Amino acid sequence: MSVLSNLEFFVVEALRSIRRSGLMSFVAIGIVVISLSIFGMFLLFMANLGNMVAFMGSRLDIVAYVDKDLTTDAAQVLQNSISQISGVDKVVYIPKEEAWKNFREEFGAKLDLREVLDENPLPNSFSIKVTSPDVLPKVAEAVANFAEVSEVRYSGKLIKQIQTMVDAVRIGGLILSILLFFATLLIVVNTIRLTVLARETDIYIMRLVGATKSFIRWPFVIEGVLMGIIGGTCGIMILKFSYEAVLARVRNALPFLPVVSDPNVLTLIYFSVGLSGVLLGMLGGYISVSRVLKEKG
Amino acid sequence: MIELKHVSKLYQNGVEALLDINLHIGKEEFVFIVGPSGAGKTTLMKMLYREETPSSGQVIVDRVNVTELTPDQVPYLRRNIGVVFQDYKLLPRRTVYENVAFALQVTGAPRSQIRRHTMQALELVGMLKRSNSFPEELSGGEKQRVCIARAIVNNPPLLLADEPTGNLDPQTTFEIMELLDKINRRSTTLITATHNKNIVDMMKRRVVQLEAGRVIRDQQLGTYSNS
């Protein structure tokens, strides 16, 4: 007996059932929507957090500001000396003019600095990349020992703190998602169980005329899947529109914040949300009818 | 067709529904199971389509040992047995046609076959004209005809009727029994459980009388009571 040839019968039965338990189906779908939205928001949040950490990791370097009156030749000598320090990967000299140009290129379009500043406020500096975040403090200390270096900055500590926080959020979010999944599953199971009970005569007759268990189960599984699809679609729409709204605002207000806007990543997140909805419904439908079938053998 | 060997059924609450039943029913027979309420008629019927399993003994239907079937095999046994109920058990939100077709749909039959067989069954029971009616629009006799159509729609070799006329007036009872007789003559083995004296006396068929879970009489061309 193939599922496909009976698909029409199953879908018609499932729709019949959703319509019959109208309000209850509506409530269950609503809860699926809410749960999936929260799940999706968590995914988006995690993606952004990951993005932020990666962004900061790429800036994982030491900036050494040097005296304003350091000559180009002296800078060259200093650059060589810094390169000799163990743990240093690469040293780039950034004259103040270049630093100013970079700064304006990065932010100039978004902020009009000319109104505030007329001349270059930045000092000459070295950008020092290290081989691993662990050596940051040692290298920074060594660099600070050069007389020409006026100030050393690095963000290693912050990175570590953020990483710890991200891990905590990830675990917390995972636990929350699992709890949410089971809570939603419980509601879907109970909703479909109501329709199972309402259709007890149908099931009795089905068993009597020789329907197999899997045949009896299919309409309920499809009912769950339909609820999952409807709930998932609504959840994705809510996520998509609200995220786009947030994205637009963040871009305006905090232009330097590295937000996730890669369509591939977003599609993957929306797809996961939809898939979770379908799985949730499928499992809900399956479980709800299983007990009735088990009782009767 | 049917063979019961030393079948006993003891329910968990201690009630002995059947006690050492031995019964042979041949192909195309028409058998009445009679006896007062609680004599074990319904339990005996349920054994045949494995709604109940015996506490001891063997039930063989169409050369298949029903007692040894796994749960997965039970649906295929039931496709060979039609069951007619006193309370019809029609699905209220479906039309007459849908109620009958339902029995074929759930076995995964192809659509063209469903249509043809459903029409034939409705024709046989004389309900073709009412195929678009809902059960609530039908009289008791009409409902029973639909129930019979559903039971025979996949041409089972065995038809079980448990008090098929229990809710019907004498005239309708007569018509339903005529219909069952017609189906029996189309080479379907028919077992009817009843405590309606009139129909048993009128039809003059084999009578198996149960009392307190035992067979106390098995008579060809019998009547409801011995006297």
Explain what this protein looks like in three dimensions.
The complex is a heterodimer of chains A (297) and B (227). Chain A is α+β, with helices and mostly antiparallel strands and 297 residues long. Chain A contains 9 helices and 4 strands; from the N terminus they run ααβαβαβαβαααα. Chain A has helices at residues 7-20, 22-58, 72-84, 96-107, 136-144, 156-198, 200-208, 213-253, 263-296; strands at residues 61-66, 88-94, 125-130, 149-153. The mean pLDDT of chain A is 80. Chain B folds into 2 domains: 1-80 and 156-227, 3-Layer(aba) Sandwich (Rossmann fold), CATH 3.40.50.300; 92-154, no CATH class. Chain B is built from 7 helices and 10 strands. Chain B has helices at residues 41-48, 74-78, 96-105, 111-125, 140-152, 170-185, 197-203, and strands at 2-10, 16-25, 30-34, 56-61, 64-65, 81-84, 158-162, 189-194, 206-211, 214-219. The longest helix of chain B is centred in the C-terminal third of the chain and has 16 residues, at 170-185. In chain B, 45% of the residues are buried. The model of chain B has no long low-confidence stretch (mean pLDDT 92).
